[in-house]
Amino acid sequence: MPRDWWKGVVVYQVYPRSFADSDGDGVGDIRGVIERLGHLERLGVDVLWLSPVYCSPQDDNGYDISDYRGIDPLFGTLEDVDELIARAHDAGIRLVMDLVVNHTSDEHAWFVDSRSSRDSEHRDWYWWRPPRKGHVGGEAGAEPNNWGSFFSGSAWEWDEATGEYYLHLFSRKQPDLVWSNPDVRAAVYAMMRWWLARGVDGFRMDVINLIDKPDGLPDGDKKLGDLWGQAFPLVSTGPRVHDYLQEMHGQVFADLGRPYLTVGEMPGVDAEQARLFTDPARREVDMVFQFEHVDLDKGPSGKFDIVPLTMAELRANLMRWQVELDDVGWNSLYWDNHDQPRAVSRFGDDDPVWRERSAKTLGTVLHTLRGTPYVYQGEELGMTNVPFSAPEDFRDIESVNYIREQTAAGVPFSDLLPGLRFRSRDNARTPVQWTAGEHAGFTRGEPWIPVTPNHEEINAEAQVGVEGSVFEHYRALVALRHEERAVSHGTVTPLAMDHPDLWAFGREHEGTRLLVLASFTREPVEVPPELLEGWEGAEAVVATSGDAAAGVLTHGVLPGWESVVLRSSGTLAE
Ligand code: ISL
Question: Could you tell me which residues are beta bridge partners of residue 94?
Fold first, then answer.
């Protein structure tokens, strides 16, 4: 097995809370994943990334961990995880766990000890700071700096008992660890080795580029209208992140002696930094999740401020990443995950007439680019955003805090609703739609968040094994990556980059050439004739429909929102 085995694979993300509920308590669980492993096998994916199942007060749905070596009873037991690892391995699927070590839960034993007194053993494992000079702790403006939390409010929480503040970039129940403390790092590496010894095959590292905080914790810039200073530019990708990841590699992976995969979640990372993080010679991580393409539609007032995005802008961004990482480094490819809106509603067209076609076409593009594609649960069914309408519809701490903060500042909820509907993380967190039946077959109890009403049309039962379905298209794309080295290992040539509706590129490897053509509009697209020169006798290896393949090969026209992948030994147009 080559060291870079992950170049030819597809990863499937399970957000366990919303995947499948085996015991009827309304929350998905590990046994639910075990019961539905057949779905992943059928799709053909190689790796399962499991979002956190560790012990947690669930303030941020498990991204607040109180015991890294324990499983939350909500999700099951350690034995269930052992069984999941074994069953996944039997099915030829590797298991990658979430690693959340920028912060712990405030209920983790390390933090409980840390806050117990100023000279506790773990005091310097977290960021404790006195009030700002001349201020009284706990009063407005006394925070050590002006940083805002990602989940609204100050990033500092006052601790009356010990008379200091602690830092939390996320919720106040997610205190940040001090990575410059070697004891913290040693404890994290030991925990990672413990999981690898149990059989897991790697880690997805949560906000791993935020672990290096700047010396002196300076104030962040405050733009007009900002309630708090911007911490993000100051904490994103500090220089020591590279050192820590190299150290981690040496301490955890260098002597593992079997295949593994590491992916660093890195908001704010640019392509140049990503090349450094993923250059195999530097031994940091195999790939990163970059955020540029999912931030393009973010307006100046933050994530719920939505600006229109054209296909051309999206394409320009992702194709630039393709080019910049073509010789060194490796891309992760994703349209959505548990933090992002549903891909078809955001980048496709979720009108019932176009939904399936556009969901399939998004799949075609992502899965034929160079990099490792990630499928987020339900994406392979074309699941959509949710028609939220009231404050009570939201569960996510980020949305709930935002609604609370904004309405308290006098903004009517109706003004917030469009942004929330578009981008609330709850869009991705409604239950996977297995059937047209009650609660979409997710649970026999009451789901923790209601299923999306359209489960009657969009569900696995209606798609698996059904020709022309979104699921079967994704299955064909996964198979293509396994079979066709031009997809997994080929070079990429962006084509027709000035076309407003056609996303086109070539792939090439050892004499095999592919031409990917994808329409991002309802109208038929005339393919520029020069693109098709030399492709007359080509084979359509994957297409969203027979019509799409025939349309391109016989008339040079791609029907609305359709896509084809042609294979030939012809010559790629320049
Ligand atoms: O959605 C976001 C907040 O605006 C993102 O910035 C998100 O917080 C960021 O992608 C980091 O996400 C990861 O860490 C968070 C957790 O809430 C997310 O679910 C996780 O994917 C804190 O652990």
Answer: 47
